[in-house]
Amino acid sequence: MMKFTVSNYNIKCATASWQLLQKRFNTTTVSTSLQITNNALTLPAAKQQSKHFTVQTKTRTLGKSQGRVVILGSGWAGFRLIRELDKKNYDVSVVSPRNHFVFTPLLASTSVGTLEFRCITEPVRTYSKETNFYQAFCDKIDVKNQVIHCTSNIDADPTKKEEFTLDYDKLVIAVGAYTKTFGIPGVKEYACFLKEVNDARKIRKRLIDCFEYASQPGISDKEKEDRLHFVVVGGGPTGVEFSAELYDFISDDLSRLYPDLMKKTRMTLYDVAPTILGAFDSHLSDYASKKFSRKGIQIKTQRIVDRVEKDHLVIKDEGKVPYGLLVWSTGLTQNPLVESFTSAAKDKSGQRILTDGQLRVIEKESNAPYPNIYALGDCATILDNDLPATAQVASQKAGFLIKNLNAIAKKGYEIPDGKEFKYKNNGIMAYIGSYEALVDMSAWHNWAKMSGHLSWLLWRSAYISKSVSIRNKMLIAYHWFLTFTLGRDISRF
């Protein structure tokens, strides 16, 4: 109970005011009462709020003619929808476990300090002033009642996770995917991934820790060699670009600061495939392999990881391999929401939601599309038109859906069944270190394949232009200049 000592006059005024308020509003849901004891005004303790609440805004009464669109996710597909969907005709709500968009092509650069983390993040609320944003996970989709069940993702108090429901008229599923571990023991516990800003921050801290540990007195040469062995598992663009950025960091900056440790520092790139960068033209992937070999980066293909321990991994036919840092980038696996969405059809692997050509989710039993549920990005694939899980595909699908939904809102008709999504391959790029890159646009022209320094300029120009905000375009250019002239920051936070 809370007590406040007041005068008799104030007590009379407070009592009269309270009675007037009760009469004015005729409240039946509030049971608060005033008690006066020994010239003290006593208020009853407030009841603890329930941990479950429902968000049911009546969108039709707010001038939103097309009802509520709920977007799940703030990745490449979700973030474009947030920015470009017609908010005059749709009441837009966003549910995402993070409150920002990550420009993933430059995530590897932030993990070694070439760029700072704020260079590649875009706050969702900056672009969603006319939308409702909820930082939460979507746990379940109730198709029958057109409701989603969510759990908050607020780090301030992880012991208190609020649960709530949110109704929708149209639902867009763009929750992305997780890094695939293949069920190998120890990967989740000991490996570092490269999907989020927190992953990059963890890698940067771990890198500096390895060098600081190896520079301590009393550390044996064997311990130094083990701690300064950096292992990357996965020979796709993410694994290769991180290896390239790490090589630049070591050769450009750490070699000046830890010169005595350079002979004990080594890098190894493992992949189960016969070559790295399998999505690129074979000449370009061979070029990258040769460049890595010349730099001293070992490439070991057709290797299988049996298990991962705290300070070593076990490779089939190779045995124990000690490491100081292990970065795991071996493809994608399903988001838990995809697994729980049992009424939706899945691809052959069971990892991705199946959609029709208009990106509508296909119902498993009837094989007919839901008229108001869409899926795109890494969590979905089109029936009989399987496309790679890339940012380029996700962004193009989002553009297609935005055009359709905005047309429905403005013109008042549904998109004809014959109009389906068509992917335009704009090429792929990868940084391979030492101011060199690969550019493969052979989907346009057979000769459009480049490597070397000119490709690096094209790579940087493309990513600056693709960065969303003017602020981040300026920050990226500024930090690239700082890194080139003054080097990377190795402060440990």
- Radius of gyration computed on alpha carbons: 28 Å
Please work out how many helical segments DSSP would assign. 12
Uncertain parts: 1-14, 23-50, 56-63
* Subunit organisation of the chains: single chain
Name the helicity range. Answer: 25-40%
Determine the mean pLDDT: 87
Strand runs, count: 28
Question: Which structural category fits the helices and strands?
Answer: alpha/beta
Shape: globular
Main pleated sheet:
9 strands, mixed
Q: Between the first and last Cα atoms, what is the distance in angstroms? A: 44 Å
Strand portion: 25-35%
Lateral strand order in the biggest sheet: 4-11-10-9-6-5-12-24-23
Question: Which short descriptors sum up this protein?
Answer:
NAD; 25% strand; 28 strands; FAD/NAD-binding_dom; alpha/beta; globular; four-stranded parallel beta sheet; 493 residues; disordered N terminus; nine-stranded mixed beta sheet; NDH-2; 12 helices; FAD
Task: Describe the fold and architecture.
The protein starts with a strand and ends in a 7-residue tail after the last helix. The chain is 31% helix and 25% strand. It has 12 helices and 28 strands. A hairpin with a 3-residue loop joins strand 18 (312-315) and strand 19 (319-322). Residues 1-14, 23-50 and 56-63 have low confidence and may be disordered. Strands 4-11-10-9-6-5-12-24-23 form a 9-stranded mixed beta sheet. A 4-stranded parallel beta sheet has the order 16-15-14-20. Strands 1-3-2 form a 3-stranded antiparallel beta sheet, with no helix packed on it. The protein is α/β, with parallel strands linked by helices and 493 residues long. The chain has helices at residues 8-25, 76-84, 107-111, 187-190, 197-214, 221-227, 237-257, 282-295, 336-340, 391-411, 453-466, 470-486; strands at residues 2-5, 35-37, 40-43, 52-55, 68-72, 91-96, 100-102, 121-123, 132-142, 147-152, 163-167, 170-173, 178-179, 229-233, 266-271, 297-301, 305-308, 312-315, 319-322, 325-328, 332-333, 353-355, 360-362, 369-375, 380-382, 428-433, 436-440, 449-452. Helix 2 (76-84) packs parallel to helix 10 (391-411) and helix 5 (197-214) packs antiparallel against helix 6. Keywords: FAD, Flavoprotein, NAD, Oxidoreductase. This is FAD/NAD(P)-binding domain-containing protein.
